Amino acid sequence: MTTRSRGREQQQSSRSKSARSKLDGTGERLPSEGCRTRKRAKLDGISRRVSSESSSRKGKRSQGRLEKKAAKRNRREEEEEDGTCSSACSSPLREPYMPMEVERLPDGTERSKPIVDSEISDKYRAMQEDYYRKIARQMKMPMLVPHAPPNCLVNDPTLLHIREPARKIVLCAAQFVVGLSSSVGRKPLARCSGFWIDLDSEKRTGTIVTTAYLIRTKRPSLNAWLCKDEYASAPKVTVHLRGGTVAKGRLVYHQKHYNLAFVRVKMDPSIELPSYSDKVECAQDIFELGRNESVKLVINHGRVEYSNPTVYERYHHMYVQGPHQDREYDKGGPLIDLEGKVVGMIDSSPERSFIPSSVLLKCFHLWKNFGRIRRPHLGLKFSAISLLNPVLVEDIWIEHKIKDGLIVEEVSAGSPAEKCGIRVGDVVECFNGKCISTAVELENLLLSIVMNSGDGLNSDLDVQIQVYFPRRYLRRIKVLNVEVSEDAEFVARASHLVTSHGTSPSDEPRSDELYYG
Predict the structure, then answer these.
(1) I need a surface site. Which of 28, 76, 283, 393 has the fewest CB within 10 A?
(2) Domain positions in the chain
(3) Are 83 and 90 in contact (CB under 8 A)?
(4) Could you tell me the superkingdom of the organism this chain comes from (predicted)?
(5) How deeply is 512 buried, as exposed, middle or buried, from its count of CB atoms within 10 A (0-12, 13-18, 19+)?
(6) How do the pLDDT tens digits run along the chain, 517 residues long?
(7) 295: buried, middle or exposed (CB in 10 Å: 19+, 13-18, 0-12)?
(8) How many Å apart are CA 254 and CA 119, to the nearest integer?
């Protein structure tokens, strides 16, 4: 090699070292300090300071970008090493095994056995632990979960004829079903489900409807008409969205009579609201949806059952007939039909009951427009003739020539109905000129009256009812002046106090313990 060649190599080597000194660990070129120094030397005192600050900011931004690129590259390299990233950029898992050697036995046969080597054994155990750790991490992917929670769409052979369409509508409806939990202080209160009912795109908030069971602290009586339930005034509400996301909810309103609660939460504007169906037919297939404590979808199947409520239950409920399922988590969740439309909301009590969507939507309309849900208090309990045993319906027709209407099951002490002469066993046939056949129809009619009359909390309202009096075989039209209130309606019979001097009438209703046992 000539002297000239060696000189050229030394120059190239010095240039490479100079270039490498200007590169950081990621291979990116750093800002040239010498260049900045030469520029600063040409400026006056003020320009020098401004240029120095600007260059410092640029240098920091450049350094920040370099650090982000390096961190991203390091994460990608770590994912490739542990096999957690996509299979397209990671090496496939290989199960380690011990090297074997062939051993010849005295009878001339051969067998394989692991090579005994402490260093290889230690390395094998370490690789095996790492392998199974990666397998366990990999099996957490939803595509590879071996066993899903049991549900009716998988385990019930009687649903085979509707399984495929039901799977589609359930998965579509799952997007608006959420889980909710509540607490007071540090004490957990309840866990239930709910669903989106309203969105405000401008404020980026959504409203969830659920059962007031979410905030109920005490329920001393099974009789809902005695209004003894107690609720937390300032509970902490947490919304559990699908995918494991958790959001802070705010209780904005709850209604005791309908056992409803509305929760507001910051939300993604891309959430879809459900569609509703007002028509609920007897024996109609429905699916109850909810989310359990792991936010997994809970699916139960049933059929709509038309039946009268007991004397303990509100009469705006409808019922579900089907295999008994634990409603621990799906209380407050939606019921959907085979078109994916919401037909009601699962109630927490009574068992297997739900609030039909016709009542639910009217309640939401009242709350959204007036900030409260009011209803007329009639002071009466009913059962529908059309839902009685056909044998009894025939007997009623033979003797009284009526086959429709609401039978009065109880009259509240001191109520306008009692003062008008309405007694247990009388039949209400028409309400404000409209014939009614079920208590749910009556409840919808009551809410419609309030919706059309505007907001007037705790006001009075005149309603006209046509009553059949079976004791006298007469029909009469009565006008009741009833209270319109957002409080839960209280209905209980009056009692007679028995003393040594006889009986003393009292307008005080019997207690739950005395009358209902």
Answers:
(1) 283
(2) 88-146, 160-370, 375-509
(3) yes
(4) Eukaryota
(5) middle
(6) 554 555 555 555 555 454 444 444 444 444 444 444 444 444 445 444 545 555 565 565 666 666 766 776 666 655 555 554 554 556 788 888 888 888 888 888 888 888 878 888 888 889 989 888 888 888 877 777 766 677 788 888 888 888 899 999 999 999 999 999 999 988 999 999 999 999 998 889 999 999 999 999 998 888 999 999 999 989 999 999 988 899 999 999 999 999 999 999 998 767 889 999 988 888 899 999 999 999 999 999 999 998 999 889 999 999 998 876 667 788 999 999 999 999 999 997 777 899 999 999 999 999 999 999 999 999 999 999 999 999 999 999 999 999 999 999 999 999 999 999 999 999 999 999 999 999 999 999 999 999 988 765 558 889 999 999 999 999 999 999 999 999 999 998 777 677 766 555 555 555 444 333 3
(7) middle
(8) 68
Residue with tokens 């957002």: 486
CA distances from 477 to 279, 410, 429 (A): 30, 19, 10
Q: What does pTM read for this prediction?
A: 0.74
Q: In the structure encoding, which two tokens stand for residue 129, read together? A: 């632990």
Name the one residue in this structure whose structure tokens are 């028509």.
279
